[in-house]
């Protein structure tokens, strides 16, 4: 059963708030991940429709949330997403070319793939925890996984799972991890960086 109500509180940085059902004082917790339209940022006063599901920690929880009317223009995120895609493609092409050309060993893309898989799983686990109200994965852990080379997996998780894509401070830190990874790849492509990673690969290679 769908209900209609108004957002009476919204914490943009944390990505959650509360909605009160029209014609009553029934309040429900609502998380940013529950919104079908992710191009628009929720705000106090927005009218929404939603379904209610139990949440053991906070009481009723809004699910399958939709805005009732347009209200404000969508947040301008298209250019940012396009830039993120461009960075990812450029990073991948540079990495592939360096491995094919022998400048970097196969260890580097294998490491990035493993870290990306682990990061994607960490995002998925955190989203399930957010839905069920159980223990969440610390944001610092997600950032460390991305910084350690798992940022492509984090990028996929943010797009596919629609998780951790609203909070401004988290997006800023994520972009910083991508920039640092790009700088690290640039250094690895130098003579000193290439020599060091080949040395490490040799030490890790089975005798």
TrEMBL record:
InterPro entries: CSD, CSP_DNA-bd, DUF1294, NA-bd_OB-fold
Pfam families xref list: CSD (PF00313), DUF1294 (PF06961)
Domain CSD, chain residue ranges per copy: 2-67
Keywords, in A-Z order: Membrane, Transmembrane, Transmembrane helix
Molecular function per GO: nucleic acid binding
GO cellular component terms, A-Z: cytosol
Alphabetized SMART domains for the sequence: CSP
Transmembrane regions listed in the UniProt entry: 82-99, 106-124, 173-190
UniProt name for this protein: Uncharacterized membrane protein YsdA, DUF1294 family
Taxonomic placement: Bacteria, Pseudomonadati, Pseudomonadota, Betaproteobacteria, Burkholderiales
